[in-house]
Amino acid sequence: MPPRSYVTAIDPPAASSEAHPLSSTRRGQRVRLEAIEGGRRLTMRLISMGLPPGSEVEVLHNRRGAVVVAREHNRIGIGAGMAARIRVQPLP
Fold this sequence. Notes:
Layout: E1 6-9, H1 12-18, E2 20-21, E3 30-38, H2 40-48, E4 56-63, E5 66-71, E6 74-78, H3 80-84, E7 86-90
Antiparallel strand pairs: 1-3, 2-7, 3-4, 3-7, 4-5, 5-6
């Protein structure tokens, strides 16, 4: 049996308007994590890393989809596969 797929979102209608994958976010851009398009395991891993849906981060590096983000005083590296499943909304 294939694993279940979960979408964890703060506000699904808002997430669909301008949301795009974290992997396509440019360096220096501030974004809000709107949804995690993956299984429960991915969602729990991101939450344990300090990146729950709704958190605001700044993209420090983006190298072919693999990103390094800053949240508060922490830097977190996220692989390209994981970053492609995180939907973000740009912040003004």
